[in-house]
Design a protein that fits this description.
Number of helices: 9
CATH superfamily of the largest domain: P-loop containing nucleotide triphosphate hydrolases
Strand content: 15-25%
Number of strands: 8
Order of helices and strands: HHEHEHEEEHEHEHEHH
Largest sheet: 8 strands, mixed
Strand order of the largest sheet: 4-3-5-2-6-7-1-8
Distance between the termini: 36 Å
Shape: globular
CATH topology of the largest domain: Rossmann fold
CATH class of the largest domain: Alpha Beta
Helix content: 40-55%
Radius of gyration: 21 Å
Length: 265
């Protein structure tokens, strides 16, 4: 099993914009009950912050770190990514809880769960015994469940002075949120990596196999993209590094993802 020392080594070996800011974030969270982190997409906040907190907790502190997500697929994916970084399977030190599925054990230090389950957890355990930190990921996408959970946690601070709360977002107006909270929490800004972005629009046909047409559009874009970046790689210029490249495709849900992936194969 990876030791606490190796977690620090893993974090330092990762080339994410957030890594140099982690010590500052940990220090802020030690001094304040509520902290806000604004970090751009791709900074590594969803996976690195829980691991850094797990590394920072005292060995005798058995409190769990809860990472709150608003989608089932995101919940499972982030838990799998963190477990993979530690060289473990999900359910050991990293676990997750979603509706009708739970992969967690007594030794799990980080639990990724959906916002609805957090509200249920607070209802069943009003003092949140056994929890040290609650992290709200992508707080700008908050829902009624998120706001309710945060209100309950803020009220809980009078009984649990040791409980830490972290709000993370990429696009949230953090100053406005911070001003509305009492006492006003500190805000840490972390810039992200900026790369050239090109937008290619292709409307889908009103009728026909949309999954096949989407897969074809992705395949054609990959070929075009490969032709564009090869000169940059050969000359050692541009923002695209050598090695395999990838295309990020946004689709509405898991069913659509599976169907397009099947067509691509």
């Amino acid at each position: 099993m990876t030791s606490s020392t190796s977690i620090s080594g893993i974090l330092q070996s990762l080339n994410y914009p957030l890594v140099p800011f982690l010590p500052t974030l940990m220090a802020l969270m030690e001094r304040h009950p509520l902290t806000i982190l604004r970090a751009e997409p791709g900074s590594g906040k969803s996976t690195l912050v829980p691991l850094a907190l797990m590394d920072r907790l005292n060995p005798g502190d058995q409190g769990r770190i809860l990472l709150v997500e608003n989608r089932r697929l995101t919940t499972v994916g982030i838990a799998s990514r963190m477990a993979d970084l530690l060289g473990e399977t999900v359910g050991q030190r990293i676990g997750y809880s979603v509706r009708l599925e739970r992969r967690i054990s007594a030794k799990s230090r980080v639990e990724v769960l959906t916002e609805g389950l957090l509200v249920r957890r607070i209802q069943d355990n009003p003092g949140l015994d056994g929890v040290s930190v609650v992290i709200f990921d992508e707080f700008h996408e908050r829902s009624l469940y998120t706001d309710l959970a945060l209100a309950l946690l803020l009220d809980l601070r009078s009984l649990r002075g040791d409980l830490k709360i972290l709000l993370m977002s990429a696009t949230l107006d953090t100053e406005k949120i911070a001003a509305a909270l009492e006492p006003q929490p500190p805000v840490l800004d972390c810039p992200g990596n900026l790369f050239p972005v090109s937008v290619s629009y292709r409307p889908l046909a009103k009728r026909g196999p949309w999954a096949r047409e989407t897969a074809q559009a992705v395949a054609e874009f990959v070929e075009t993209h490969r032709a564009q970046i090869q000169p940059e790689r050969r000359n050692g210029t541009g923002a695209v590094p050598g090695g395999p490249s990838a295309v990020l495709v946004f689709l509405p849900g898991k069913e659509e993802i599976d169907r397009v992936a099947e067509e691509l194969e």
